[in-house]
Known about the structure:
Elements: H1 3-15, H2 32-43, E1 48-58, E2 63-73, E3 77-83, E4 89-95, E5 99-104, E6 109-114, H3 117-120, H4 130-137, E7 148-154, E8 159-166, E9 169-176, E10 182-188, E11 194-203, E12 206-216, E13 221-232, E14 250-253
Parallel strand pairs: 6-14
Antiparallel strand pairs: 1-2, 1-13, 2-3, 3-4, 4-5, 5-6, 7-8, 8-9, 9-10, 10-11, 11-12, 12-13
Amino acid sequence: MNRAAAAIxxxxxxxxxxxxxxxxxxxxxxxxxxxxxxxVKNQENVVTLEGDAKLRAELPEQSGTLSMFVAVTRxxxxxxxxxxxxxxxxxxxxxxxxxxGLYQADTNTWYQGPASPANVSRFLPVMLPGEELVPIMxxxxxxxxxxxxxxxxxxxxxxxxxxxxxGQATQVLDVHTRxxxxxxxxxxxIPGYDLGFDDFLEQGGLLFPGRVSLEAKQAKTKLQVRYQxxxxxxxxxxxxxxxxxxxxxxxxxxxxxxxELPAGAPxxxxxxxxxxxS
Length: 278
């Protein structure tokens, strides 16, 4: 057998070899509840994030990438700003968890009202309350409360597959076998969205995904946040979450459904958290 043929033979042979799986210090885990508890604990170690990112949005009508400044603090505090190619501000969203403010530079308009999914979606084209959006941007997955769960090892992909069951709903989680962090989440049986986490980086002893992806299949929408220079678990700058309209901006009050209210009318309605995948 000549060298070229031998090389081809080795490639074919190795392609059929099982992927080498690296487990944590406890070795392979076989108990679903043990993996679930470790996943939940590992999701709680990041509470604040501040820095720069690239936001990629793929929508039915258009797609594009924007620069974005991000500051988020659990449970539901948000400060997001987007900029165009020339670093000119386009829009900003601020929420203290109860109320929101959205500034649109092109119309010099400041919208304010309850921090409901309908109002938050004025900035990001996904209907999520801040209580879900903030954890996602912190690399965490909102989990359905499981009535039962199953665990398998996918040797081809090299991940644990942890499946949560609640009635007709299931949430399938690909879990890193060593670090026990969720890499992928798929909700089925109820309206929901898929999440992906990759390009993990280590900062201050914390493992954090450098890229967060969200896909809402029913809305035909994909969002991807790729973090660049960020700080984790720093003391939050609370001034970033103050709802103050820019000087000279037109102020519009909206209700929880996003409807504009007459000038001087009090806002009505409240933001009710949704179950993961709702």
